[in-house]
Amino acid sequence: MVTIERPVTATRAPAGPRPRRRRPWPTIAVFLAPALLLFGLLVLAPIAVAGYASFFTWNGFGVPTEFVGAENFRRLLADEVFAGDLRRTLLLVGLSIGVQLPFSLALAMLLHQPLRGRRAYRLVFFAPYVLSEVVTAVLFTMIFSPNQGLANHVTRLIGLGDLGATWLADTRTVMFSLFLVISWKYFGFHTLLYLAARQGIPQELHDAAATDGAGPWRAFRHITLPLLGPTIRISVFLSVLGTIQLFDMVWVLTGGGPIRSSETLAVTMFQEGFKRFQVGYASAISMAIFLISLVFGLLYQRFVLRRDLEGAITTMGDRR
Amino acid sequence: MSHADGARAARHGALHLVAVLVGATVLVPIVFGVLGGFKDNGQLFTNPFGLPDPWVPGNYTDILGSGEFWRQTGNSLGIALATTVLVVGIGAMASYIFARYAFPGRELLFTVFAIGLMFPFAVAILPLFVLLRELGLLGNPLGVILPQVAFGLPVTIVILRGFFRGIPGEVEESAVLDGCGPVRFFWRILLPMSRPALGTVSVLAVVGSWNNYLLPLIVFNDSRWWTLPLGVQQFQSQYSADTARILAYVTLAILPALLCYALAERQLVAGLTSGIGKG
């Protein structure tokens, strides 16, 4: 790996007038200090404290003193709500990977066609991504509202009656309504990622395939899809991490209800920590979120992203 | 018209149909919000799809005249700007060192920041709340800005370091030969040369701050500092039965974001996809 360092030639040149050489340490210290200070104090320390607090019974005031060992974690593993959180996270991950992302991919392939006005379509598809989750959630609360909401009007219009009377209020439908809103907001983002990657594939490859007699499906299967691989893997990664950490949308849309049937890990953590002041137990949930994210992230990087990540995230603008 | 042309036209028609349908599912909720704000609740019930008849501008004018909406918009804007300036400034300084200075422990430190990309905000929120309370930063915009900066550093540093490394070493050599110190090189040469990357990380910071909810929620008890997401949610619980009024508030909260998006779409899209989109 080539690392560009400070005056390379100047220090290596054995003869000739050498420029005044500065000691790098003060510069390094001054330039790094603010980032280290903020990151250490407001990111690393709180996470470490959460880890520490997860071994205590603590109401969040003063210093945690009532050490209970792994009791919080034992309680967590036996907690039906926590088990439900994990199931719901898996359900959302499955739906995202199985429904939302393939849909985004299909749409990106469509938008890649020479289609009149595709810039306008792209503009529209991506728009929900810039809205905050909270504002989106409030808008959809209104849309799912039993009387004035749009959703019920639509189902009545297409002859499904009041099927939708209970979009967010029924334990059987709430997760799918939630998934609908999440997809509405995020599918455009993934579509755009795929589209950008698709446009980066040289046309010659598809021309050559066509000359060799490959139909559109085979060209997609053997050329487009493999070359989109890195982007698809990144998009799955972002989607899964986002789902593990889901909070805003759920909190505003359902508050985790009805009867905790749409609660996520972060919502349970918030309930325990900020509503019931069980900060020790809530910290144990934090740690669970942390560990799940980290283990997933590291395993995914290790086994799936390995080579992609080098070129995709860490070396943007690098002409290596 | 030849046979092939006909087939192509049919295919195009089908493509457009799909695109229009998807576009409609995206737009209908937003249009429902915009138009719903101009209806009253009776109209929303009897006439959910059509144009308002008559148009009732009262919901909008009430909100625009109340001052609360404007204060929330101002708070959101101020907090987003302060966050962006700080995270880009501090992040750029650190990236400069990570990109162009060699010292023992550099890769380890950088890795810590890079792994920070995977730290969920929710994990730190409880101790962060306790810490901010001890520091007396609850109810203070700094209590939102500083943690946002800290959590924004990983993505800023990862992107900027990559970009800074791509700037040829000769540029720096000649600057040093001309007697340029590290601060002047950073400020006068490196930053101006890095405008595209700085734009990218700025966009990420603005969007992140503008949309943040959890942190303002726990830091601001006093409605004086509420940001738009908090305001919208509070408004919803206050007028829970008045759908039309809430739709008007949502619409007004959406507009700045959509306007910004329409104006800076290219930059935004490039920003959000540049780091991850090129496979």
UniProtKB/TrEMBL annotation, chain A:
Principal cellular location given in the protein's record: membrane
Entry-linked SUPFAM superfamilies: MetI-like
A GO cellular-component term linked to this record: plasma membrane
Organism: Catenuloplanes atrovinosus
Compartments it resides in: Cell membrane
Ranges where the record places region Disordered: 1-20
InterPro entries according to UniProt: ABC_transporter_permease, MetI-like, MetI-like_sf
Location of the ABC transmembrane type-1 domain: 86-300
Record's protein name: Raffinose/stachyose/melibiose transport system permease protein
Keyword Membrane: yes
Bilayer disposition of the protein: Multi-pass membrane protein
Automatic annotation (TrEMBL), chain B:
Transport recorded as keyword: yes
Residue intervals passing through the bilayer: 12-38, 77-99, 108-132, 144-164, 197-220, 246-264
GO cellular component: plasma membrane
Keywords, alphabetical: Cell membrane, Membrane, Transmembrane, Transmembrane helix, Transport
Domain ABC transmembrane type-1 intervals: 73-264
Major subcellular site: membrane
Localization (cell): Cell membrane
Bilayer topology annotation: Multi-pass membrane protein
BP-aspect Gene Ontology terms: transmembrane transport
PROSITE patterns registered for this protein in UniProt: ABC_TM1
UniProt-listed InterPro entries: MetI-like (IPR000515), MetI-like_sf (IPR035906)
Similarity comment text for this entry: Belongs to the binding-protein-dependent transport system permease family.
PANTHER family: ABC TRANSPORTER PERMEASE PROTEIN MG189-RELATED (PTHR43744:SF12), ABC TRANSPORTER PERMEASE PROTEIN MG189-RELATED-RELATED (PTHR43744)
Entry protein name: Raffinose/stachyose/melibiose transport system permease protein
Taxonomic lineage of the native organism: Bacteria, Bacillati, Actinomycetota, Actinomycetes, Micromonosporales
